[in-house]
Design brief:
There is one protein chain. A five-stranded mixed β-sheet has the order 1-2-3-4-5. The chain has a single domain, classed as STAS domain (Transcription Regulator spoIIAA), CATH 3.30.750.24. The chain is built from five helices and five strands; from the N terminus they run ββααβαβααβ. The radius of gyration is 14 Å and the shape is globular. The chain starts with 11 loop residues before the first strand and ends with a strand. Helix 3 links the parallel strand 3 and strand 4. Helix 1 packs parallel to helix 3 and helix 3 crosses helix 4. The longest helix is centred in the middle third of the chain and has 13 residues. 36% of the residues lie in helices and 32% in strands. It is an alpha/beta fold. It comes from Streptomyces indiaensis.
Length: 108
């Protein structure tokens, strides 16, 4: 019996609002197996065309440091501004450890 393999998809949803704002909603456990797919999502052409990103992290239960660094790289490569909303205390700690608080506004 062979097992059917499903590609790992990062729990990321991108919504562009009025052509100026992108809402990037992340959810669940953002871990290393999702890293390449996360980076691919963050390279979405729609994110390059907007002035501001809002990263909604209300539903993120955990994020590994490598994935936080991927967020940091994406935010620093973006020419606009980024704001993080709704991250849990443990997620915030990892985002700060990666240095994301130096490149984005982190709201409580």
């Amino acid at each position: 019996m062979t097992a059917e393999l499903h590609p790992i998809q990062p729990p990321v949803k991108i919504t562009v609002v009025d052509g100026h704002l992108a809402e990037v909603t992340l959810a669940g456990d953002i871990s290393v197996p999702l890293l390449r797919d996360l980076e691919a999502c963050l390279a979405d052409a729609r994110l390059r065309e907007v002035e501001r990103w809002v990263l909604d992290m209300h539903a993120v239960t955990r994020i590994e440091l490598a994935c936080a660094y991927a967020l940091l790289r994406a935010v620093t490569e973006h020419s606009g501004t980024a704001t993080v909303h709704g991250a849990r205390r443990t997620v915030l700690r990892t985002l700060r450890d990666a240095g994301l608080d130096k490149a984005a506004v982190i709201g409580e």
